[in-house]
Amino acid sequence: MNIQSEIEPVGASKRLEEESALIESARAMIPVLKERALQAERDRCIPKETDAEFREAGFYRALQPARHGGLQLDYGAQTMFAREVGKACASSAWVGGILACHGWMAGMLPDEAQADIWGENPDVAVSTSFLPIGVKAERNGDKLQIAGRWRFSSGVDHCRWAIVLVIVPPENGEGPPDPVFALIDLNECLIEETWDSAGLAGTGSNDIVVAGAEIPPYRMMRVMELRGEETAGSEANDSYLYRLPLFAVFPFNII
């Protein structure tokens, strides 16, 4: 049986109901988030209480595949609830919306990688970093050995996994490099507190430092395959979401 036929897609009316519920939850949080806004700026990350309330409301699961416990709402739902949160705390709005978007990105990974992320806990959040600094990447058969630093990973202190950009050298030193996104286990990394910004001070956009990690092929996806075509994740997830062109729609989160 085709794996997509095992999943009943969430209907449009149901998706709108779920999105409205997230928006109402965000509105209800405004008073307490206003009270915590200064704490977030002082601590350089959102408070644990805010993170817990975001999880309970389902913010991080907004675009996460339904087969792995997500709400699988329409793209843009994350900005609708984040807009309400932003009336109280811009940093909290950034983290809530961007971590929801990362669940969408993770939905493009092979299903085996998605099971690693959410198999035991569907509330697990994922961070990202698109800015590798001094990263070394070497091919080892079909695996990848990586080490280095990735900057500006918003909300990383509240995440268990991260998707990071790796520029893979060409095989045999010939041809252009091959950029890929790699899923890494944050329990095997160091999160270095480097975020010290005047704006969005509470986003906790710290650095991820990897001393050495081996990435199996199922935890990788080539950037050039995320241009609006079928992805490894879309083979398992019955939604247009996981076929959207990544870099064409990702900036929608910062509007």
Secondary structure layout:
Layout: H1 12-43, H2 48-57, H3 77-85, H4 90-106, H5 111-118, E1 126-129, E2 131-140, E3 143-153, E4 161-168, E5 178-185, E6 190-192, E7 206-215, E8 220-222, H6 246-249
Parallel strand pairs: 1-4
Antiparallel strand pairs: 2-3, 3-7, 4-5, 5-8, 6-7
Helix pairs in contact: 1-3, 3-4
What is the structure about, briefly put?
The protein is α+β, with helices and mostly antiparallel strands and about 260 residues long. The protein has helices spanning about 10-45, 50-55, 75-85, 90-105, 110-120, 245-250, and strands at about 125-130, 130-140, 145-155, 160-170, 180-185, 190, 205-215, 220. The protein contains 6 helices and 8 strands, in the order αααααββββββββα.
